[in-house]
Amino acid sequence: GRVAIDRALEHEVFALTDSLSLGHFPYPQDDADPVTGAVTYRNLSDADVTLSLSANVTDERGRAPAADMFTLAADEITVPAGGTAEVSLTVDPRVGDYGLYGGWLQAVDEDSGTHLRTAVGFFKETERYDIRIRGIDRDGRPAGGISNVDVINIDDQRIFAVRRLDGSTLV
After folding, report:
1. Is the dihedral of CA 60, 2, 81, 40 positive or negative?
2. d(CA 169, CA 136)
3. Sign (positive or negative) of CA dihedral 47, 48, 50, 51
4. Which of 95, 99, 143, 155 is within CB 3.0–4.6 Å of 69 for a Cys-Cys bond?
5. 75-128 pLDDT, tens digit each
6. Which pTM does this prediction carry?
7. HEC string of the chain?
């Protein structure tokens, strides 16, 4: 995208965290613990700056996470003059639908015109199971040479794995 260099160089408050991955949560998530990450802001000015915070995170279909699945610890943060402050974001993988979630944490100070965005994301894996594939050639021996297997989700045609099969493999 485009950047207004003159405006970018005027800002004295910026995010030290360029993006925040809250993790990949393999199936099943029943025993998974909530994960918390933080975004840190630095203020180079000689006055405290208060940032209004909001998070806009959706799954790949544009749906918001379930209530209590993704939380922002505060809707406002004060970054002290010459200092830093951080805000926490938490994802609870036991709650909500499966999917890839992504979006932005936005921090705004209308007085100075500061608008900061930090990318945020996490992945809650869909229901999956291991399968063992045993390749057998025409005469009943373990398959060798070039033997490939594609495992495809019949619901959405996504390929989960393409493996070279040499006898037996776990997919």
Report:
1. positive
2. 12
3. positive
4. 95
5. 999 999 999 999 999 999 999 999 999 999 999 999 988 999 999 999 999 888
6. 0.79
7. CCCCHHHHHHCCEEECCCEEEEEEECCCCCCCCCEEEEEEEEECCCCCEEEEEEEEEEECCCCCCCCCCEEECCCEEEECCCCEEEEEEEECCCCCCCEEEEEEEEEEECCCCEEEEEEEEEEECCCCCCCEEECECCCCCECCCCCEEEEECCCCCCEEEEEECCCEEEC
Q: Amino acid letter at 137?
A: D
The values of phi and psi at residue 84, to 5°, are -130, 160
Q: Which residues have CB under 8 Å from 138's CB, separation 6+?
A: none
